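Consider the following assembly input.
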Amino acid sequence: MRLTFNKHEKLKSQKAIEQLFAEGQSVSAYPLRLVYKKNEHGLKVGVSASKRNFKKAVDRIRVKRLLREAYRLNKSMLIDHKIDNYTLMILYISKEIPDFKLVDTKMKKLLSKLKDQLPN
RNA sequence: UUAGUAAAUCGCCUUAUCGCUUUAAAUUUAGUUUAAAGAGGAAAGUCCGGACACCAUAGUGUAAUCAUAGUGGUUAACAGCCAUCCACCGAAAGGUGAGGAAAAGUGCAACAGAAAGUAUGUACAGGUCAUGCUGUAGUGAAACCAGGUAAACUCUAUGAGGUGCAAUACCAUGUAUACUAACGUUUGAGCGUACACGCGCGAUUGUUAGAGGGUAGGUAGCUAAAGCGUGUUGGUAACAGCAAGCUCAGAUAAAUGAUAAGGGCUCUUUGUUAAGAGUACAAAAUCCGGCUUAUAGAUUUGCUUAACUA
RNA sequence: GCUGAAGUGGUGGAAUUGGUAGACACGUUGGACUUAAAAUCCAAUGUCCAUUAGGACGUACGGGUUCAAGUCCCGUCUUCAGUA
């Protein structure tokens, strides 16, 4: 399969995000944290780096791009196990700007943790 | 040569693989393929000036408030820019300057000092018929000078209606023209977007405030313009005119990326070709013209000659 | 994105019209009282140098105006608030 991450896979609805943070559950693999919730619309994924941790816009965008890229390359871990009816939000918690290798390994860990925690 | 100084430019590159956004075309159906394009000199701060939109219909006088401040020019406009005078800094090139008015009026000046703006005390010296008439001493930032202070009020000249694309228009979904309080319907609540008066507008679902219910998706606005570089003419210059050419981001939990390899550039070690490290500041959010602030490093040009060498 | 407001010892919070910066309260430290503690009372408490007298620097940071700036003006930084 192709490793894509386009508009339709992105979590955008403000309403859905509010619900996610209100009712969702979470897993974490420092410095990443994932909030998840079941839905009916297929896999929707968002990515976030807080303004509190990264004051400059350049750094925030940089971190979000790395997270997005890491998710894109590892999303088969979810799809192969038929985890496809979920809303996910991946947060970056640390204040350090990471390199790609770190984000990549942590993302793998995070997604396998999520896989174990889910019922199927 | 070094140093200084002014101005301008660049601010990593190439290839491969995997991705993202927009537009166009094809195919077919909402996916795929192909092609093209896809961050900056400051995109930043939001400090000025506009365009544009709305604010009874956006009209409008006075006063107030705010801004600007040598002179002339430039511009759509400006607190910008250019030229120039003056003052200060510098050896020079050059830099800096909220640089109008104190002889319209009001205020202010701690401590010190006899006295701080209605002046004139003491000591000494000089002078006179005589007298603070003249000088010096002492205090202070300032001691009589049409003194200082206008980044104190003020006056003069000029300019400014307010709010900002989360403006605004339309489509879709949904709800509560309900409830409470105050005021009001031509004898005028309130509005004209800080405030006051005048003129004006103003209620079939009135106005303001409170507490509360619902939506928070999409489309337009939105990127071809005070546009860009080139040549040429006028002008000391900022800038303006003309000519032919070019089309150059448009996202919205927000695209412009990731990995690998190679090459530049700088520094360090080594000691003459290797190794290691580094490669700034910073991410469009309606759009333009400026200003301010941040910025590893590299390049070019003009000017100055104090110092060093010949 | 757009639009406002604020910044003073360890903390809250004063300082009139520019004229001795830190009033007042809390906290902290030391002492008194007590067998011990609390409460109460007394004293000290910005930093540095001298450790007697005193001097220098201090109102987020950097400049300017002024004889003199927490206060007036300009720039920067940080924090907070409003707005579909």
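Chain A is about 40% helix and 20% strand. Ask yourself how this observation constrains the way the partners meet.
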